[in-house]
Amino acid sequence: MTTLFRWLLRGFLAASVLAGLALLLAYYLATGSIPDYDDERTVAGLDGPVEIVRDAYAVPHIFGESDHDVFFGLGYAHAQDRLWQMTMLRRTAQGRLSELFGTATLSIDELLRALDLYTLSTRMVANQTPETVAALQAYADGVNAWIRIVEQDARGRGAPEFFLFSNAIAPWTPADSIAVTRVMALQLTSHARFETRRAELSLVLPPERLADVLPDNPNDPVIDLPDYASLFPDGTRFPEPEAGERQALWLSPDRPAGLGGASNAWAAMGARSASGAPLLATDPHLGLTAPAIWMLARLEFPDGGAIGATIPGLPGIIIGRNDDFGWGITTAYLDDQDLYIEQLDPEDSGRYRTPDGFAPFETRDILIEVAGQAAVQRTLRWSRNGPVIPPEHFGVGEVTPEGHVATLAWPALDVEDRAVEGLIRVMRARSVAEGRQILSLVRAPAQNAIMADRSTVALQMFGAMPRRQPGHTSQGRIPAPGWLAVNDWQGYFDYGENPSVIAPESGIVANTNNRLSDAPFPNHVSFVWGDSQRMARLQRLLNEREFHTLASFREAQTDTVSPTARNLLPLIARDLWWEGQPPAEDSQGRLRQAALALLAGWNGEMTEHGPEPLIYAAWTRALQTRLIADELGSRASILSRMEPVFIERAFRNIDGAGIWCDVDKTEAEETCREMAERALDDALDELTDSFGSRMETWRWGEAHVALHQHEVLGQVPLLALFTDIVQETSGGDHTLMRGQTAGRGDRPYANIHGAGFRGLYDFDDPDASQYIISTGQSGHFLSRHYDDLSVLWRRGEYIPMSLDPDQARGGAVGITRLRPAPDG
Question: With contact defined as beta carbons under 8 Å apart, do 326 and 319 qualify?
């Protein structure tokens, strides 16, 4: 027995040593790809020397003697820190994820191939100006210079992820950068999803009840808009919804409705500023990832510098400032997507119905390489309205009748788009007028630019507005029959007709994705907008002061008060709050009374430290679930996140919406008070199960954790411990410091969508401007700069946004010097 024990012990020790050596080897190989910021290199492709100064936060400050060399330096710096992220964006655009991840991403590849974004991007190169192509090529040369160094010096394959997946890295090209803009455009719009959501709900709800869950904005002239089923002949069969929750596809840029882009931005003229010079605040909202989509950088061109947020893969400052001009962006919610339902020829599925009879699709056969199995063959199809969309995407599978397919019209598929040129040039603008003119080049993505120079401020929507005909059968609100000529787009409106505001009398311009225009259809911008609650809160904060400072803008940008909670709680709790109520005799009743007592004294601030935000969020979520479960059944998951206007309509009984409180399947007639009480009990049961029976120990932050998830390694439980950044956060779905909740799954209150970048610009003292991103500069999870900024971001703090070269050099963590090779 003793001998056996000794051998077992020796075996265990040997296995432990081997495991330890394996871990050390893995660590050694992985750390080899962490770039050395103190470095000197001779590289081909430069005209002169380039200096990349990494300040105390690893933000690259790039100095060169020519535009070409500065763009080269940015490409080099991006590749050093975010090479894996860049290649993943490129693979997404190319529809080549399945080469790495197998069948798990095949559906995504099918969508991107159907849209043909990468082919379009290669064709778009020819439509750019020579100056733009030169910038794209210089940037690509910088990226490729780092890739060559990785290959020659065995720099850990460039990123740890390349040890787990293919380490073959194709050279970067100008088309790759344009393709990144197409992927971002896809991520920043949800209108195709809005169309299918409305269409599917209209199949089970009468118009007056559809208006409750998807309310129209006031003053929208919606006249004789048909329900979806009536657009097709009687007897048309629609798919039955599948049971269970509808989850977004992993890695897909096709975002669920409401999880496209969002954002806040506002600016004040000197007349509303304590210093007499304009101020600007901007914080774009996207899905939280590790690393963030954004990377901070400063570019010093011969004619001046620009500093702000970049997107690795693109050669420019996407949001930022120079000495004279600053800009921020918000998603415009422009309805720039229309889905069409195309009727197939019953005799030949390769043909579809047009106004002039059946015509053949334009087709192309492709092969999609799939790791671990044979390549998959697909036939891509295009109609006169756009590409055929696979049924798994945009929700089209739930609303496409038998014998039909869905196609998509979208300006991002227009090869004449010069968005990349606009995004590159805007950082060189020196005035609001110049910035507005440059952004006219962008057709997609549609955004609002909030701009300021040293004398004025402005809001300008940019992006192509589709020109629909007055007789359009669905007004672009639901998928439309593709064979009716009246549904065809008639090109785009002139850029001058896009909504804009310049130097308003109030002295302030602002947008929180709220409604921009009251113009009626077809001159409207959209029927669907972001929530109005954030704008109500922002207006209050901006109007409380006559004169603003950088500090007051920072307070507004990090404000965590929920106006929605302040509005809804008095409605849903009004019949449950009353003095003199006798103490409850049962434990459930006592728990309910304790929760109501806490909420009665709460001011609506969604702080991470208290239980009140958690009780409120769980209560309203449970309440909506009870209200819609009866009528929507298996389609209830379409509304996975609390819709405050719907709950308000029900409890105020607007247009008879109080009927949602009654359960059809019971003989009794339930009241809204009863539903509120039952929902509160549901919520308290849920919270007790998840966080224990002591209500005083519940904390919003424990549930509302920000999930900065690595899009690939975050799917692997052990590796996720190293790659994912998980933080308790304040804020919520409707606060200015937004932290949009998941609304589903095992962490429904997790913060998954928020401000990955925040910026504050002061034109009295531009170098006092501040900015921050949500993770860190590096995409390497073993780098100390992978998550160092996330702590500041969580606390609502910032780092200096200065163009002073001495400040950058003073605390630099490294300086990379690039010299041109003798042969150029």
Answer: no
d(CA 412, CA 417): 7
Question: Tens digit of pLDDT for each residue in 401-420?
Answer: 999 999 999 999 999 999 99
Helix (H, G, I), strand (E, B) or coil at 766: helix
Q: pLDDT tens digit string along 37-58?
A: 999 999 999 999 999 999 999 9
Q: Give the chain's end-to-end CA distance (angstroms, integer).
A: 74
Please state, in angstroms and rounded to a whole number, the distance separating the CA atoms of residues 439 and 718: 45
**What is the bridge-based pairing of β-strands 60-64 and 295-301?**
parallel
Q: C-alpha 405: how far from its chain's center?
A: 28
Q: What is the DSSP code (8-state) at residue 225?
A: P
Residue type, 391: P
Structure tokens, 333: 């919610």
Cα–Cα distances in angstroms (integers) from residue 308 to residues 59, 191, 434, 550, in the given order = 10, 29, 19, 17
Half-sphere exposure of 813 (CA within 13 A, CB side): 14
Residue 386: partners with Cβ closer than 8 Å, 6 or more residues away: 340, 407, 408, 409, 410, 413
Cα–Cα distance, 803 to 65 (Å, whole number): 17
Contact between 444 and 417 under an 8 Å Cβ cutoff? The reply is yes
- Sequence-distant (≥ 6) Cβ neighbours of residue 460 within 8 angstroms: 435, 436, 439, 448, 449, 451, 498, 500
Residue 6 CB neighbours (<10 A): 10
State how far the Cα of 569 lies from the Cα of 661, in Å rounded to an integer: 16
Helices assigned H by DSSP within 95-173 = 98-101, 106-115, 117-124, 130-153, 161-164
